[in-house]
Amino acid sequence: MSAPSVSYRRHRFPRELIAHTVWLYFRFPLSFRSVEEMLLGRGLIVSCETIRRWSLRFGAAYARSLRRKTAKPGDVWHLDEARIVVGGQPHWLWRAVDQDGYVLDERRGFPGCAEPGARMIVAHTGLPCAPDDVG
Question: Residues 117-134: what's their mean pLDDT?
Answer without folding.
Answer: 57
